[in-house]
Amino acid sequence: MRHRFLSCLSALHLAIALAGTAFASALPLAAQTGPLPPDLQIRLAVQAAPAALQEGATVQGYDASGAFVMLRPGTNDMICMAPNPTHEDFEVSCHHASLEPFFARGRELSAQGISGQARTRARWDEITAGTLPMPAGVTNAILTGSGFDRVTAEVREPSLRWVLYMPGATGASAGLPERPTIPGAPWIMFPGTPGAHIMISPPGGG
Questions:
Q1: Residues contacting residue 28 through CB under 8 Å, at least 6 positions apart
Q2: CA-CA distance, 63 to 46, in Å (whole number)?
Q3: How far is it, in rounded angstroms, from Cα 142 to Cα 47?
Q4: I want to staple 170 with a disulfide (CB 3.0 to 4.6 A). Which of 74, 179, 191, 200 is the partner?
Q5: Average model confidence (pLDDT) for the chain?
Q6: CB 56 within 8 A of CB 75
Q7: 156 forms bridges with which residues in the sheet?
Q8: Which of 36, 98, 29, 103 is nearest to 66 (CA)?
C-alpha cells in the first residue's frame, strides 16, 4: 500500500512539473521574468525576415540587465530586433541595414524622454535638414502574435506586415490610396512627409 501511495505521489509531482513547464512556455511576453534567453530572442526575431535571409541576419535584443545590445553579428544587410521584455504585446521586426540610423535615432530620442509625435517630428526635421539619412525603397517587416512557445519559438497567431519607406511619396506620385481600402492592399501612410511609407498588412492583421 505504501509503495502504491508513493508511486501515485511521484506521478502527481511529475504531472504538476510538466503542467508548470507547459504553462511557462505559453506565457505572454509581459508575464516572463526579465529578458528572454539570447538564443530564444534570436530564434524569435529572425522570423520577421525572409527565410533566405534569416541565418545571416544581425540580431539585436536585450542582455540580462535589460540593456539593448547586439546578440548576433550578421553577414547580410538584414537587422532583426527581438521582442522588448517591457512590452505587453509580442512584436519582432527586421529592417534593411540602411534604415538602422533612423531606428537608432529613435532609440536615442526615447532615451531622452522624447516620444510620440515629438519624436516623429524630430526625426523628420533631421531628415529634411540632411543630418539623418533616410533611404527610399527599403523595407521594415513587423511580426506580431498572441504569444510564443519558449521551447519551439513558435509564434502563435502570427501576423506579418510590411513597411516600404518612400520619403516624400504621395498617393499621386505612387499611384496608391492614402488610407486603407481593401484588406491587404497597399496604401501610403504619412504622404508627402520625410516618413512617408507604403503599408502592406495582411487581411485581418495588425
A1: 88, 90, 146, 147
A2: 17
A3: 9
A4: 191
A5: 87
A6: yes
A7: 147
A8: 36
Element (H, E) at 171: helix 171-174
How far is the C-alpha of 86 from the C-alpha of 47, rounded, in Å?
Answer: 20
At 15, the pLDDT band (50, 70, 90 cuts) reads very low
pTM: predicted TM-score of the whole model, two decimal places: 0.82
Q: For the segment 28-56, what is each residue's pLDDT rounded down to a tens digit?
A: 454 456 789 999 999 999 999 999 999 99
CA distances, 48 to each of 11, 80, 142, 158, 190 (Å): 41, 7, 6, 10, 23
Residue with cell 502504491: 4
DSSP code string of 18-29: HHHHHHHHT--G
Q: Which three cell numbers stand for residue 187?
A: 496604401
Q: What is the pLDDT of residue 34?
A: 74
Nearest partner of 142 among 87, 66, 191, 72, judged by Cα: 87
- The closest alpha carbon to 80, from 34, 137, 155, 143, belongs to 143
- According to DSSP, the residues that pair with 147 across neighbouring strands are 156
Identity of the residue numbered 202: P
Cα gap 92→194, rounded to integer Å: 24
Closest CA to 191 of 174, 120, 96, 201: 174
